[in-house]
From TrEMBL:
The chain crosses the membrane at residues 114-134. The keyword Protein transport does not apply. Keywords: Membrane, Transmembrane, Transmembrane helix. Signal peptide: none annotated. The keyword Transmembrane applies. It comes from the Eukaryota. GO terms for molecular function: disulfide oxidoreductase activity. GO terms for biological process: brain development. This is TMX2 protein.
Length: 160
């Protein structure tokens, strides 16, 4: 039952998740976040790249790139401890991945770093994250409305 309930919840929310991911902000952010991995690992793209490996293989990471990617994963894990929503988790992953990619591209070649930085700036200026349109569970009280709400249902506990 512990496996079935989350699976059913995922299937129930799948249409909304697909609409959410189909907005241009998320696929483009994912592409920018994975840009260095794609450039370094896809054989037609990586053949002409410089490499600091002893074997000279341009399609593999060198030790410094592995260190930067491991540091990225540690930072993302630490920052996501305080994230509440899925949007915050994904936003943190995208933001820190773009920063790590910029560092990696600048380390690889200054021209590639400038190109990546330009793409990120154009993306930032043209593509805004979608606004959350779901239910809001926060109530805003004034000195008049708080008494009414407290008296409405005695079984509800309020944190103010």
């Amino acid at each position: 039952m512990a496996v079935v309930a989350p699976l059913l919840a995922l299937l129930w929310g799948l249409p909304g998740l697909c609409r959410w991911l189909a907005q241009p902000y998320y696929p483009l952010s994912a592409l920018l976040a994975a840009a260095f991995l794609l450039v370094r690992k896809v054989p037609p793209l990586c053949r002409g790249l410089p490499s600091q490996r002893e074997d000279g293989n341009p399609c593999d990471f060198d030790w410094r790139e592995v260190e930067i990617l491991m540091f990225l994963s540690a930072i993302v894990m630490m920052k996501n401890r305080r994230s509440i929503t899925v949007e915050q988790h994904i936003g943190n992953i995208f933001m820190f991945s773009k920063v790590a990619n910029a560092i990696l591209f600048f380390r690889l070649d200054i021209r590639m770093g400038l190109l990546y930085l330009t793409l990120c700036i154009v993306f930032l200026m043209t593509c805004k994250p979608p606004l959350y349109m779901g239910p809001e569970y926060i109530k805003y009280f004034s000195d008049k409305t708080i008494d009414e709400e407290l008296e409405r249902d005695k079984r509800v506990t309020w944190i103010v």
